[in-house]
Every structure is written in structure tokens, then in C-alpha cells.
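Pinned message: reference record for Low molecular weight phosphotyrosine protein phosphatase
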Amino acid sequence: MATPSGRSVLFVCLGNICRSPIAEAVFRKMATDNGVVGKWVIDSGATSDWNTGSTPDARGLACLRKHGIETDHRARQVTKDDFMTFDHILCMDDSNLRDLNKKASSVKSSKAKIELLGSYDPEKQLIIQDPYYGSDKDFETVYEQCVRCCKAFLEQHS
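Predicted structure (C-alpha cells):
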């Protein structure tokens, strides 16, 4: 799955219906706008299997649409193969990070660099909080954090 130039990124959260599909859609739009989308494999996934096959949360979709971004992502769980095929796995909080590191330790040829997406935030907001039980404003906050982090990540890896 890794592209010849070796650029692939997987965004991960707990359920793959709120934060990670927003991050994936934001990054895909940025890469498209910068003319580099063809150099990247971009996807998102969940640490849990709760929402497999589901579309993103309607509030997340509305937030993206408000910013002129569409996504047709369907939730999926992170697989062992992901650790062997993706260069970067960027997650949203410490719980995601623990789950991913635990899963990666059982994969012999894991090559993915696992990090918090928030580690790229110029405003140093390390954790991207789950907006599931929150309001539209919380989804907007996630969107803004994803924009800042994805911009910095793309700049560092293009």
C-alpha cells in the first residue's frame, strides 16, 4: 500500500466516526489543494470494532460540509497489516496511542511511526478530545485542531 515515494498516513481514533474521518478528509483536501494527493495513501481507522461499516457522525459530516469538504469514508478497525503498510499512524489521544502501541508490539515487521496527531499542533493542543457526547462546537474544535495539525504534518513530510 505504501506509495513509491513512501508516503502513507492512517488517522486513528476510538470509533472512526468522529475525529479520524475529519482528520482524513481535512488531510486529503489539503494534499489535493497542494497538488500532492497522488503521492499519498490516506485512510482512517478505529481502535475498536464498534462502528465498522458506519458512515461518519452526521455532526462531523455537517462540520466538514460547512468548510467545503466531503467524505464517503466507512468506519473500519485498524488491522495488523496497517502497521506494516502505513508509514505514519496518527491518533487522537493517549488511549488510542496505548491501544495502537500494544497492537503494534504483536506485529513482527511493524514499520509505522505511531504518534499523536496533536504533536504537530503549533498551538500545542496535544489531545484531540472525542466530540461524540458534545455539541456542534466540539466538532468545530476538532476540525480546527485537525487543520492546524494536518498542515504542519504535511509541511514536514512533503
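Pinned by admin. Summary line: Helices lie at 19-33, 58-66, 80-85, 94-104, 136-156.
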